[in-house]
Amino acid sequence: MRVLAAMSGGVDSAVAAARLVAAGHEVTGVHLALSKNPQSYRTGARGCCSLEDSHDARRAADVLDIPFYVWDFAQEFQEEVVDDFVAEYQAGRTPNPCLKCNEKIKFAAVLNRGLALGFDAVATGHYARLVQGEGGVELHRAVDPEKDQSYVLGVLTQEQLRHSLFPLAETPKTEVRAEAERLGLAVAKKPDSHDICFIPDGDTQGFLSRYLGEEPGDIVDADGVTLGIHHGSHNFTVGQRKGLDLKIPAPDGRARYVLRIEPVNNTVVVGAREDLRVRTFRGIRPSWTQGPVEGPWRGLAQYRAHGTPMDATISLRDGELVVELDEEASGVAPGQSVVVFDGDRVVGSATINEAR
Q1: Residue 270, helix vs strand vs coil
Q2: Cα dihedral sign, 345-347-353-356
Q3: How far apart are CA 349 and CA 189, in angstroms?
Q4: What's the pLDDT band for 21 if we cut at 50, 70, 90?
Q5: Do residue 254 and residue 297 come from a single domain?
Q6: Do 47 and 88 sit in the same domain of this protein?
């Protein structure tokens, strides 16, 4: 099989490529240049797509003795991921750029180019399992629950899954690093990247302010009483407690939390923690790994990448995914992605539009 191995410059993708070579596949490594102005070095475990990452990927490919290329997807990444991220915050929503990158770049633009060039599949270092089922290829959680990345892959379609490979599905991360050591890969001890890859300093507010500037507005309670001033509603997300700088304390002395963001009038609404609790949310633009499931059906819903799956009744109504939780959840924000599971099998995903 001709396989295009996406090599980020980290240990996971390097070992994934190594396993494909050992299995006898014809492997070509490709590093995605996603930044228009890549920095020379990462800051510890923050960020990715730096020149350092590109060099690390190339060195790993040299050790594996496979062809290696750098593909420039900076323009597509800017338009599909970064610009979308900024626009979502400007609209008062909280997006997940990793899902958007998987949907629009890694398993769309890259896969399409790979197939056009005659490759059979794209392989990545994601921790998730692919199982051949009666209805096609199924996407399941990885064996290592601490590294499972099925949530951020919940946007993939059946056609994309059919041409995807995840060689690390059955392996704990500690074993992956040990394998990299045995293979002589210099990235064996390289820290995992975390946070948002295009914000390497971790300052999301500063990043958004460079795009959106400052636009002062009111912070109010549920009755509309002004409690303070903010410098841009994009600096807040539902469930946030820190950084509110309220001038009037709550009557009971308890902390207040962001309940919702109203970009039309540039207002941030705050209230008690219990006011964040919701039981039902609706998701727009549903995506299915094996085709739509009307329901209602019993399953699990997860609305954060590292969140706890919650028991729920799930259905498709008027083109929207409706999730009714057995127990209340807190801090569910419009713009987040909800991924629904049948056991450990990913059924589909949607973008949360309403929670109550």
Answers
A1: strand
A2: negative
A3: 34
A4: very high
A5: no
A6: yes
Q: What's residue 39's pLDDT? A: 61
**φ, ψ at 102 (rounded to 5°):** -60, -40
What average pLDDT does the segment 343-356 reach?
97
How far apart CA 222 and CA 271 sit, in angstroms, is 7
Output the domain CATH number for residue 226.
2.30.30.280
259 plus 280 within the same structural domain: no
Within-domain flag for 207? no
pLDDT in tens, 161-198: 999 999 999 999 999 999 999 999 999 999 887 778 88
Q: Is residue 59 one of the residues assigned to a domain?
A: yes
**Helix H or strand E segment including 340:** strand 337-342
Q: Are residues 229 and 182 in the same domain?
A: no
**Binding site, annotated residues:** 6-13, 32, 125
* 41 and 102 share one domain: yes
41-45, 84-88, 277-281: segment of lowest average pLDDT: 41-45
For residues 181, 182, 184, 185, the Cα torsion angle rounded to the nearest 10 degrees is: -50
Same domain, 230 and 316: no
Active site (catalytic) residues:
101, 197
Annotated binding site for ATP: 6-13, 32, 125
- What pLDDT sits at residue 46? 53
- Is there a single domain that holds both residue 148 and residue 243? no
Report helix, strand and coil shares of the chain as percent, to nearest 5: 30, 30, 40
